[in-house]
Amino acid sequence: xxxxxxxxxxxxxxxxxxxxxxxxxxxxxxxxxxxxxxxxxxxxxxxxxxxxxxxxxxxxxxxxxxxxxxxxxxxxxxxxxxxxxxxxxxxxxxxxxxxxxxxxxxxxxxxxxxxxxxxxxxxxxxxxxxxxxxxxxxxxxxxxxxxxxxxxxxxxxxxxxxxxxxxxxxxxxxxxxxxxxxxxxxxxxx
Length: 190
Fold this sequence. Notes:
Radius of gyration: 17 Å
Oligomer: single chain
Largest sheet: 4 strands, antiparallel
Strand order of the largest sheet: 2-1-3-4
Low-confidence stretches: none
């Protein structure tokens, strides 16, 4: 069985001395909904940055161990290649949204993949329905939960098979948080 993600003896230090991550091992199959929890400053965001490739390709530091994505050594992959499999929803989703309209935002990632206009339209329409968003909605007027659904829609339109969410419930009220969790569970089951 090919795993979505495997970490083998993974350690990371920003300064080469103090380890933020220390000898982690993890195996996550496809179709799994996994939650990483810990205190603030315990390395959750750092770990997500390692998986996505931001560390060490953009953020320097000392990385040891292996990250396998889809059974392959991700150290050999560019961030562009990783982004075809791994989507990230940052803690502050506003940092990820660049367009004014929802449909333009979703199409943006598809354009970067050089998809045909017909394929883009098919994918955009499918994720709009899936994530309960309207194409002409203003991205600036979306609620926190809608913005998170938008960024997830962008990932799904690009065909990313793994989605990393950093503090996905932090800025949501209880009702929105429960709705997002239900939606994520359904997506995992699908």
